[in-house]
Design brief:
single chain, mainly alpha, elongated
Protein backbone atom coordinates (compact mmCIF):
# COMPACT_ATOMS: atom_id res chain seq x y z
CA UNK A 1 0.00 0.00 0.00
CA UNK A 2 1.60 3.25 -1.08
CA UNK A 3 1.40 6.57 0.68
CA UNK A 4 -1.34 8.72 -0.79
CA UNK A 5 -0.04 11.75 -2.68
CA UNK A 6 -2.44 14.26 -4.26
CA UNK A 7 0.37 15.06 -6.69
CA UNK A 8 -0.06 11.59 -8.22
CA UNK A 9 -3.70 12.27 -8.98
CA UNK A 10 -3.06 15.44 -10.89
CA UNK A 11 -0.97 13.53 -13.45
CA UNK A 12 -4.12 11.63 -14.47
CA UNK A 13 -6.46 14.62 -14.79
CA UNK A 14 -6.38 17.87 -16.67
CA UNK A 15 -4.95 20.66 -14.58
CA UNK A 16 -7.35 23.55 -14.13
CA UNK A 17 -7.12 26.76 -12.17
CA UNK A 18 -9.45 27.30 -9.22
CA UNK A 19 -11.37 30.56 -9.26
CA UNK A 20 -10.85 32.45 -6.04
CA UNK A 21 -13.79 32.35 -3.61
CA UNK A 22 -15.85 35.43 -2.74
CA UNK A 23 -14.05 35.69 0.60
CA UNK A 24 -10.64 36.09 -1.05
CA UNK A 25 -11.90 38.48 -3.71
CA UNK A 26 -13.54 40.64 -1.04
CA UNK A 27 -10.39 40.84 1.09
CA UNK A 28 -8.43 41.64 -2.06
CA UNK A 29 -10.75 44.56 -2.79
CA UNK A 30 -10.43 45.94 0.74
CA UNK A 31 -6.63 45.78 0.60
CA UNK A 32 -6.27 46.97 -3.02
CA UNK A 33 -4.28 43.85 -3.81
CA UNK A 34 -4.78 42.19 -7.18
CA UNK A 35 -5.28 38.45 -6.78
CA UNK A 36 -4.27 36.57 -9.87
CA UNK A 37 -5.41 33.06 -10.66
CA UNK A 38 -3.33 30.51 -8.73
CA UNK A 39 -0.41 29.19 -10.75
CA UNK A 40 -0.46 25.83 -8.97
CA UNK A 41 -3.11 23.14 -9.21
CA UNK A 42 -5.13 22.35 -6.09
CA UNK A 43 -3.85 18.75 -5.71
CA UNK A 44 -0.27 20.05 -5.89
CA UNK A 45 -1.04 22.62 -3.22
CA UNK A 46 -2.60 19.99 -0.98
CA UNK A 47 0.46 17.78 -1.35
CA UNK A 48 2.50 20.64 0.15
CA UNK A 49 0.11 21.12 3.06
CA UNK A 50 -0.18 17.46 4.10
CA UNK A 51 2.83 16.20 6.04
CA UNK A 52 3.81 12.53 6.02
CA UNK A 53 1.76 11.63 9.10
CA UNK A 54 -1.40 13.06 7.54
CA UNK A 55 -0.57 11.39 4.22
CA UNK A 56 -0.22 8.02 5.94
CA UNK A 57 -3.49 8.50 7.82
CA UNK A 58 -5.27 9.48 4.62
CA UNK A 59 -3.82 6.52 2.74
CA UNK A 60 -4.91 4.13 5.49
CA UNK A 61 -8.41 5.57 5.44
CA UNK A 62 -8.71 5.31 1.66
CA UNK A 63 -7.16 1.86 1.26
CA UNK A 64 -8.09 0.08 4.45
CA UNK A 65 -11.34 -1.75 5.18
CA UNK A 66 -14.02 0.49 6.60
CA UNK A 67 -16.97 -0.50 8.70
CA UNK A 68 -19.97 1.62 9.59
CA UNK A 69 -20.14 2.97 13.08
CA UNK A 70 -21.41 0.48 15.62
CA UNK A 71 -23.72 3.15 17.03
CA UNK A 72 -27.19 3.34 15.57
CA UNK A 73 -28.16 6.65 14.01
CA UNK A 74 -30.42 7.90 16.78
CA UNK A 75 -31.38 11.19 15.11
CA UNK A 76 -33.52 11.41 11.96
CA UNK A 77 -31.60 12.87 9.03
CA UNK A 78 -34.16 15.67 8.83
CA UNK A 79 -32.98 16.74 12.30
CA UNK A 80 -29.43 17.15 10.96
CA UNK A 81 -30.65 19.40 8.16
CA UNK A 82 -32.79 21.44 10.54
CA UNK A 83 -29.94 21.86 13.04
CA UNK A 84 -27.55 23.07 10.32
CA UNK A 85 -30.15 25.56 9.11
CA UNK A 86 -30.76 26.77 12.66
CA UNK A 87 -27.07 27.35 13.35
CA UNK A 88 -26.53 29.09 10.02
CA UNK A 89 -29.49 31.40 10.67
CA UNK A 90 -28.36 32.17 14.23
CA UNK A 91 -24.82 33.01 13.12
CA UNK A 92 -26.16 35.12 10.26
CA UNK A 93 -28.34 37.01 12.72
CA UNK A 94 -25.38 37.65 15.02
CA UNK A 95 -23.39 38.97 12.06
CA UNK A 96 -26.24 41.27 11.08
CA UNK A 97 -26.27 42.62 14.63
CA UNK A 98 -22.56 43.37 14.47
CA UNK A 99 -23.28 46.11 11.94
CA UNK A 100 -25.11 48.04 14.64
CA UNK A 101 -21.97 48.25 16.74
CA UNK A 102 -21.25 51.92 17.41
CA UNK A 103 -17.65 52.92 18.02
CA UNK A 104 -16.82 55.86 20.26
CA UNK A 105 -16.89 59.16 18.42
CA UNK A 106 -18.85 59.96 15.31
CA UNK A 107 -18.70 59.32 11.57
CA UNK A 108 -16.44 62.32 10.98
CA UNK A 109 -13.62 60.10 12.18
CA UNK A 110 -11.92 62.03 14.97
CA UNK A 111 -12.40 59.64 17.88
CA UNK A 112 -13.59 56.46 16.21
CA UNK A 113 -11.65 53.43 17.43
CA UNK A 114 -11.26 50.04 15.74
CA UNK A 115 -10.92 48.14 19.03
CA UNK A 116 -14.67 47.47 19.56
CA UNK A 117 -14.98 46.23 15.99
CA UNK A 118 -11.97 43.96 16.39
CA UNK A 119 -13.36 42.49 19.60
CA UNK A 120 -16.75 41.84 18.00
CA UNK A 121 -15.11 40.20 14.98
CA UNK A 122 -13.02 37.90 17.19
CA UNK A 123 -16.09 36.90 19.23
CA UNK A 124 -18.02 36.06 16.06
CA UNK A 125 -15.04 34.15 14.62
CA UNK A 126 -14.80 32.00 17.74
CA UNK A 127 -18.54 31.35 17.62
CA UNK A 128 -18.41 30.35 13.94
CA UNK A 129 -15.44 28.06 14.53
CA UNK A 130 -17.02 26.34 17.53
CA UNK A 131 -20.50 25.85 16.09
CA UNK A 132 -19.46 24.76 12.60
CA UNK A 133 -16.93 22.38 14.17
CA UNK A 134 -19.68 20.79 16.26
CA UNK A 135 -21.94 20.45 13.22
CA UNK A 136 -19.13 18.85 11.23
CA UNK A 137 -18.45 16.25 13.89
CA UNK A 138 -22.16 15.52 14.31
CA UNK A 139 -22.68 15.09 10.58
CA UNK A 140 -19.58 12.91 10.31
CA UNK A 141 -21.06 10.54 12.89
CA UNK A 142 -24.29 10.36 10.90
CA UNK A 143 -22.46 9.72 7.63
CA UNK A 144 -20.22 7.06 9.19
CA UNK A 145 -23.21 5.11 10.48
CA UNK A 146 -24.73 4.60 7.03
CA UNK A 147 -22.40 2.16 5.25
CA UNK A 148 -18.78 1.06 4.91
CA UNK A 149 -18.18 3.44 2.00
CA UNK A 150 -19.75 6.32 3.90
CA UNK A 151 -17.65 5.47 6.95
CA UNK A 152 -14.58 5.77 4.74
CA UNK A 153 -15.81 9.18 3.53
CA UNK A 154 -16.26 10.32 7.11
CA UNK A 155 -12.75 9.10 7.90
CA UNK A 156 -11.29 11.12 5.04
CA UNK A 157 -13.09 14.22 6.29
CA UNK A 158 -11.70 13.68 9.80
CA UNK A 159 -8.13 13.39 8.48
CA UNK A 160 -8.51 16.46 6.28
CA UNK A 161 -9.92 18.49 9.16
CA UNK A 162 -6.99 17.54 11.38
CA UNK A 163 -4.50 18.36 8.62
CA UNK A 164 -5.93 21.61 7.32
CA UNK A 165 -7.71 23.26 10.27
CA UNK A 166 -4.55 24.69 11.90
CA UNK A 167 -3.56 26.36 8.62
CA UNK A 168 -7.11 27.59 8.08
CA UNK A 169 -7.32 29.11 11.56
CA UNK A 170 -3.94 30.79 11.19
CA UNK A 171 -5.02 32.40 7.92
CA UNK A 172 -8.45 33.44 9.18
CA UNK A 173 -6.80 34.89 12.27
CA UNK A 174 -5.20 37.51 10.04
CA UNK A 175 -8.55 38.91 8.87
CA UNK A 176 -9.08 41.32 11.82
CA UNK A 177 -5.71 42.88 11.02
CA UNK A 178 -6.75 43.36 7.39
CA UNK A 179 -9.96 45.02 8.52
CA UNK A 180 -8.03 47.21 10.95
CA UNK A 181 -5.86 48.57 8.14
CA UNK A 182 -8.99 49.12 6.01
CA UNK A 183 -10.56 51.00 8.95
CA UNK A 184 -7.51 53.28 9.23
CA UNK A 185 -7.48 54.03 5.51
CA UNK A 186 -11.16 54.97 5.52
CA UNK A 187 -10.71 57.18 8.59
CA UNK A 188 -7.70 59.01 7.16
CA UNK A 189 -9.49 59.58 3.85
CA UNK A 190 -12.55 60.87 5.68
CA UNK A 191 -10.46 63.34 7.67
CA UNK A 192 -8.85 64.62 4.47
CA UNK A 193 -12.05 64.82 2.44
CA UNK A 194 -14.61 65.63 5.13
CA UNK A 195 -16.64 62.49 4.40
CA UNK A 196 -19.31 61.81 7.00
CA UNK A 197 -20.39 58.27 6.21
CA UNK A 198 -17.11 56.34 6.28
CA UNK A 199 -17.92 54.47 9.51
CA UNK A 200 -21.14 53.09 8.07
CA UNK A 201 -19.18 52.05 4.98
CA UNK A 202 -16.78 50.18 7.22
CA UNK A 203 -19.64 48.47 9.09
CA UNK A 204 -21.05 47.23 5.77
CA UNK A 205 -17.62 45.99 4.68
CA UNK A 206 -17.07 44.14 7.95
CA UNK A 207 -20.48 42.51 7.68
CA UNK A 208 -19.71 41.39 4.12
CA UNK A 209 -16.41 39.85 5.24
CA UNK A 210 -18.09 38.05 8.14
CA UNK A 211 -20.80 36.61 5.88
CA UNK A 212 -18.16 35.47 3.38
CA UNK A 213 -16.17 33.82 6.18
CA UNK A 214 -19.34 32.10 7.40
CA UNK A 215 -19.78 30.66 3.91
CA UNK A 216 -16.19 29.36 3.93
CA UNK A 217 -16.63 27.74 7.34
CA UNK A 218 -19.86 26.05 6.26
CA UNK A 219 -18.38 24.45 3.15
CA UNK A 220 -17.29 21.19 4.89
CA UNK A 221 -20.68 21.07 6.64
CA UNK A 222 -22.52 21.51 3.35
CA UNK A 223 -20.39 18.79 1.75
CA UNK A 224 -21.30 16.30 4.49
CA UNK A 225 -24.96 17.30 4.22
CA UNK A 226 -24.81 16.58 0.50
CA UNK A 227 -23.56 13.06 1.28
CA UNK A 228 -26.70 12.24 3.26
CA UNK A 229 -29.58 10.50 1.47
CA UNK A 230 -32.23 12.69 -0.10
CA UNK A 231 -34.58 13.95 2.54
Amino acid sequence: MGVFSPADTVQRVQRTSVRGPTFIRLLSRLTDVDTARPNIALPDRLSQWLDWTHALALSATLDGPAAPSADDLSRPLSDEVAECARVRQALGGAIAGARELVASGDDTGGLADFAPFRQRYLVLQRSMQAQTGQLRGRLRDSVASMSADMARLAGVDAVMEAALSPREQALLGQVPGVLGRHFDRLRIAAQAEGAATWLDTFRKDMQSVLLAELHVRFQPVDALLAALPAR
